[in-house]
Every structure is written in C-alpha cells, then in structure tokens.
Amino acid sequence: MKLDRRTFIKGASAGTAGCVFATLPGSIAALGNSLIKGSEQSVASICEMCSTRCPITARVVNGKNVSIIGNPKAKAFGGAVCARGGAGHSQLYDNQRIVKPLKRVGERGEGKWAEIEWDEAYSIVAENLNRLKKQYGPESVAFSSKSGSLSSHFFHLSKAYGTPNTFTHASTCPAAYIVAAKAMLGGRVRRDLSHSKYVINFGHNLYEGINMAETRGMMEAQMDKGAKLVVFEPRFSIVADKADEWYAIKPGTDITVALAICHVLIEDNLYDKAFVAQYVEGFDEFANEVKAYTPEWAEAICDVPAEDIRRISHEYAAAAPHALVDFGHRATFTTEEFELRRAIYAANILMGNIERKGGLFFAKKAGAYNKFAGDKVAPTLQKPGVKNMPKIDAKRIDMVDEQYSMLWSSGGIYQTILDATLDAHPYQLRGWVMNRTNPMQTMTDRARIEQTMKKLDFIVSCDIYISESAAYADIILPESTYLERDEEVSDKSGKNPAYYIRQRVVETIGDTKPSWLIWKELADQMELGEYFPWENMQTLQLFQVNKDLDLLNKIKREGWVSYGTPLMLREPSVLNTFVSEHPNAKPLDDDGTYASQLSFKTPSGKIELSSPKVEQMSAGRGVIKYREVKMKKADELFFIQGKVAVHTNAGTQNVPMLANLMSDNAVWIHPVTAGALNIATGDKIRIFNDTGSEEGHALVTPGIRPDTVFAYMGCGSKNKELARASGKGVHCGNLLPHVISPVTGMNLHTAGVKIAKL
Ligand SMILES: Nc1nc2c(c(=O)[nH]1)N[C@H]1C(S)=C(S)[C@@H](COP(=O)(O)OP(=O)(O)OC[C@H]3O[C@@H](n4cnc5c(=O)[nH]c(N)nc54)[C@H](O)[C@@H]3O)O[C@H]1N2
Ligand SMILES: Nc1nc2c(c(=O)[nH]1)N[C@H]1C(S)=C(S)[C@@H](COP(=O)(O)OP(=O)(O)OC[C@H]3O[C@@H](n4cnc5c(=O)[nH]c(N)nc54)[C@H](O)[C@@H]3O)O[C@H]1N2
Ligand code: SF4
Ligand SMILES: [Mo]
C-alpha cells in the first residue's frame, strides 16, 4: 500500500503512529481480562505526566497500577493518552524516586544526603523561613512552582507567610501569548482546531509538543475534514512533516510573515469590515503601520517567498472565519514575543474568527453558560476563601517597571530571582522555596543559577526526584506522585462547562505526601495553621460542591462530567442547537447569534488592535510594530530547541520507560554546515558560546536550515542522582543567556552558538 501523508495521519489516530499515542495495544486488549486474576478495578483520574492534565482511566490489579488509558467519556481527548501518559506507572514504581524527606549533609550540589522524618524536615524548614522573615522580612524569600492542580495550596502558604515574590514557569513558557491576549482581547482565548479549514502555524509543534485535545483536534481537522495546514518552522519538525506546506523560516523572524499577512488582508480588502467596525478599536493606527510591511519586505528578512505569503493570505481569507493563525504555546523564540503574538492575534481579529467555529473562542464556565442558557444547567463550584490573610506591602522583585504590569497575575518574571539574589536588585533575596520546578534545567544561564543557589541562605525543594535543582536544596520534601494523590475537583470547561477530579489510584509508596498536605502541615509548624482551616482533601471537595455528595460521587465515578452543548456566541449553527436544548435561553439577535452580547475585558470593552493602555505601560508599543532583534553574532549559528514526544520538558528524563525510549539529544546540523566542519552523524562535537559550553553528538540532516542547529530540550542533567539521565546529551540551559524581554518578561530560548568537532 502506498502511504501518503494523509493515510499516515489517519493511521496515527488509530494508535499506530509509533510512540506518539499509547492507546491500549490490540494484542493486550485481545487477551481480555481472563488472564488476570485477583482484584481488579478501574479508577478515573487525571494524568500529570505533563501540564495538559488529560482525563485518564487507570487499571489496578491486586493493588498495582498496570496500565493507563484515556477516559473514553472525554471525547475531545479521544479516549487516549500519549506515550508519556502511558508511562505513568513507570514513574510511580521507579526505585530512583525519592520516598523519604532528605537533608543536605555536604556542600550544596555535592550530592550528600541524609534521610530524615517529616517532623524534622518541617521543623528545619519552619525555623529557617521564620528566621528569614524575622530578620529580613517575608519578601526576602521567593516561592516558585509550575502552575498546576495543587499550586494554589503552595501559593496560599506564600501569601500566609507574607511574601509578594511568587513565580510560576510563565516567563519560561506561555506568558507572552497570555499577556498579548490580555492586552488585545482582555483575556485568554482557545483555538477550535478541529473545525478549522485552514491553519497557519508558526512553530507550534502539536505532534510532538503534545496537548491531547489540541493534537487530536488538529489531526481531526487534517484527516477527517481536509483542512490545510501551513507551517513556518526552521526545522522539519513532525508538524512540518504533516503539513501541506512547510517554510524553513529564519529563526526569530516569524513576525514579518504575520505582519505581511495583515498587510495583504488589509491592502487587498480581504478583512471582515463589519466585524472590525463592531468590535475593534485602533484599526486605523494599525492599518497605517502595516502599510510598510509588504510580503516583499518580509521575504528579505525571513526567507519566505513573497508570492507564497500573498497566496497563503488569500487562501486563509477565503476559508475564514473557519480558519485561524495559531498563536503557539512556548513563546520564547525572541525578545519581541509580545509583538509576534499580537501580530498573530491581529491576523485572526482581521478575519472576524472570534467565537466562530474553527476560529478562536473564550472558555464557557458554568456561571457564564447558565446565564445564556437561562437555567442552572451546570453546577458552579465554591472557592474556599480564608478571611484576614496578611496584607502584603512589599514590592515584588520583578515589578519595578510599569511595563510588566500585565504580567504579575500570569506568574511574574521567574528569572529575576537571579538578579535579586546575586545583585540585590531591587533588593536582597535570601531564601527560595521551590515546588515542582526545575529551573536549573528549564530557566536560562545555568552557571548564574548555580551561583544563585550557592549564595542563598536557605533552599527547599518539593519534588518527586532529586532534580538538578533539588540537588542544590537544603531540604527536599518528597511529594507523592499524581497516581497516589486525591485532589480537588478541577474545572476543565471548554465550549461548555466540564469538571473532573484526580483520585488516588494506588496506596502511597514510601513516606511521601501530597503537597496540599505538606504545605498545610508546614503551615502548622510555622504557626500559620489558622490560614489552613480545612481538615483534609475531602473537606475541600465537599466545600467545592456545596456538600452535594451526589455530584461529587458522579464526578469521581465518571471521571469526566460535562454539561450542555457547545456555546460559541457568533456561530449560528452552534446556537441553533444551544437554544433548542435550552428553552429558557436568552433570545438570539436578528442574525441568529449572540453577537450583541460579546464584549471584551479591555479598557474600551472592545478588541484593542492598538492600545492606549499598552502605550502607557511601554511608550512606543501602543501600535504593533516590527522591531529587529539580534540573537547571534555574524559567525554563529542559531541554536533552537523543542519538545520531544516521549519526554516532558526536563521532568521525565529519569522515568525508566521513557529513558529507555530516549536519553540523549543529538544536535541537528545541516549537511552543508556539517561538511564545512567535517562533521558526520554520530561524531562527538562541542557546542559553545559566551554563556557556556556543552559536549554532545551530531545528527546531520537536511531537515534544518544551514544557519541553525537544534536539540530536543530536557537532556544533559548534571546531577548524578538522576542516574539514567545524568551526563547524557546537551544541557540547553547552559548555552542560553540571561534575558528579560520587554513587556512580557520572557526569557529567551534561542541563542548564537559555534560548533566544533571533538
Ligand atoms: N532550554 C530550554 N528551556 C526551556 C524550554 C525549552 O524549550 N528550552 N521550555 C520551557 C517550557 S515550555 C516550560 S513549560 C518549562 C518547564 O519547566 P519546569 O516548570 O521546570 O518543568 P519540568 O521540566 O516539567 O519539571 C518540573 C519538575 O517537577 C517535578 N515533578 C514531576 N511531577 C511532580 C509532582 O507530582 N510533584 C512534584 N512536587 N514535582 C513533580 C519533576 O521531577 C521536575 O523536577 O521549561 C522551559 N525551559
Ligand atoms: N511530548 C511533549 N509534549 C509537551 C511538552 C513536552 O515537554 N513533551 N511540553 C508541554 C509544554 S510545557 C509546552 S509549552 C508545549 C510546547 O509546545 P510547542 O510550543 O509546540 O513547543 P516546542 O517544541 O518547544 O517549540 C515548537 C517548535 O518551535 C520551533 N522553533 C524554535 N524557534 C523558532 C522560531 O524562531 N520560529 C519558528 N517558527 N519556530 C521555532 C522548534 O524547532 C520547535 O519544533 O508542549 C506541551 N506538550
Ligand atoms: S498530553 Fe500526555 S502526558 Fe500530557 S497529560 Fe495528556 S496524556 Fe498525560
Ligand atoms: Mo511550557
């Protein structure tokens, strides 16, 4: 059989695409249950092998978790998990996990540990944090955690303690597209990929940087509905491979294409004038600015042919509004991500695809949904609040500049911890409490992080492994993995409201605890117990559902409960169904939509294509503009990174099943570049620049631009405690300079490097 692109993608959805999707393999399913004796049950829960948090069903035989599949009730996730989700039990039973609190007994980073009891761990942490608070004020301690299901408990402790210095991973990942959406649309939007007829993608590698619902959505659009996908990406990623068109764009120049698309949409009169008139502020200023951004201008900077940009713009406009320009996920390609992500939103806004099928939409949680439905279709959840939390007066270490004021609620500028510790800028930081975060590998400038860790007075890490960052802590608190934890009900609403819940799948292994309990018990020791009045997780769950035990049990039993039908305020076909399902629904406008009800949480209540507020925050940025960025010296190569389907960031390198699949990251080099350096595939190489130097090996491939090299991120851990990962591959963070981008505070994951054969 001849395998063309489409049949391959089709095959992939059936679970045959190698390692990408792990549905229950046919051969095991065929064995049926008959071979497995003893007790057996299926528990509905939530995956946490990455922050997508897909709904799962975990099979437990004789108390042991033997397999994990997707929860079939959650249709958008396709009832499947990815390779990492299928490897959850390998992490759970890994004998290199930490299962007892650890105290450092050597120098920081030396790798000498003593196992201690929880009581001792809590009292050391409480004593040190209270000492720092008393001597230097609570603001002298930073709290950082990857945002996640239990991070609210962690940040609750930081608030009770009184520090304003709380950070998520935002400035290393999504903040730029979130801040840009806030500035223009008043908040985050989602993409309706599965109904899109035409998708323009700037390096959003959904077939490796997996988000099950979106990855499935993209696959459905491509293979079932014949959608066209155009990818701009410096290397031949999997999504580039599955695209109808791939352009090997020069790193960091995507904005020229995005602006040139806007130019063509406006100059060729293709944009949705009625939409712009009704919903958009600042169009004229923007139109005036993009006059100069012709496809020919773009081509000279980004290497994408002008005639293709013109044709693609026309094709996109013809498919609109059921078409979108994807705003991406990891937004750390350049220091001008704010402009890029705004230019991408602009290309969507001009085509009026907001709240349309195949375009962009806002999530509809229970409260909003019920208002439109005119009935209490979905239950709303209560949020436990604690009265009299301490007032925090101190300024954040990253908030010395007005231009970052849209960032704070999105997680702050994580890397300012380095400046505050090493340079007392804007004041001296002395302690760092880390939870589920591995900045040594996932921030930039590893050498500076090491200095920071060595200088700090006190460091705590809560992790499931001795990560490279935990390796520098004074105390490590071992969290139970997600398969051993009960958690609160989570809101996972999309076009309609949906809830799900994490439930313990197996008994806890060793002496670990869920972090909600760790922070509560630590608070008790710190004499902050009054701020944690709930007794246990069940108290919290019951509070959330307003003591509706039936509801809680239903969510636990089914693992995924959704309400109503999709709601998109400007899509007549969707609204037809909506009003027929809900007899008390708000009356539709004359055009059969809720278009008159759509407003935006911006100062003007409209979409701000150009924004006086942004101008005020950062002079000269009110209107979206091209700003040249230099990311490398003339004699260097661009160094870029990306995700691999079988690992999550730098967090799974030691998980046995996944380490077996891949434990090293070869450096991709174009044959012409490799030839000039006399390098062949497999050769040992040095990759270096002013920031650092790494050794690795080469993969010579035409699937990358000659001026660019690439490595999958997350390898090259330098701590010996991660035995399966240690010293294997290139440590990307060691080659990336310390940068704080304007407005978004992003750090930068592109750098200039040189390569030499060893
Ligand atoms: N060079 C480079 N750096 C990057 C990127 C890049 O492409 N290149 N990508 C960036 C992106 S997009 C992101 S999101 C960040 C992510 O960076 P991080 O937020 O640091 O995330 P992870 O690498 O996933 O690792 C987080 C830590 O959580 C631990 N962990 C896993 N499960 C649990 C748990 O249940 N409880 C606890 N307490 N700990 C747990 C893991 O052992 C690991 O040490 O990295 C960024 N950094
Ligand atoms: N399997 C797997 N899935 C994941 C994750 C994971 O670690 N593993 N992590 C999750 C997380 S935290 C995130 S943020 C998402 C990330 O999802 P994506 O944003 O898709 O992540 P990346 O793979 O980091 O980057 C995408 C692509 O950008 C390309 N690139 C680099 N520089 C440029 C540039 O200047 N222009 C263009 N056009 N492309 C460029 C890279 O080659 C890479 O293929 O994935 C999520 N899903
Ligand atoms: S995308 Fe994969 S690893 Fe991430 S939550 Fe879903 S199944 Fe788990
Ligand atoms: Mo991310």
TrEMBL record:
4Fe-4S Mo/W bis-MGD-type domain ranges (all copies): 40-96
Pfam families found in the cross-reference section: Molybdop_Fe4S4 (PF04879), Molybdopterin (PF00384), Molydop_binding (PF01568)
Family: Belongs to the prokaryotic molybdopterin-containing oxidoreductase family.
Cofactor(s), by name: Mo-bis(molybdopterin guanine dinucleotide); [4Fe-4S] cluster
Leader sequence residues: none
Name of this protein: Thiosulfate reductase PhsA
Gene name as annotated: phsA
Native organism: Shewanella intestini
Listed InterPro entries: Asp_de-COase-like_dom_sf, MoPterin_dinucl-bd_dom, Mopterin_OxRdtase, Mopterin_OxRdtase_4Fe-4S_dom, Mopterin_OxRdtase_prok_CS, MopterinOxRdtase_cofactor_BS, Prok_Mopterin_Oxidored, TAT_signal
Keywords: 4Fe-4S, Iron, Iron-sulfur, Metal-binding, Molybdenum, Oxidoreductase, Signal
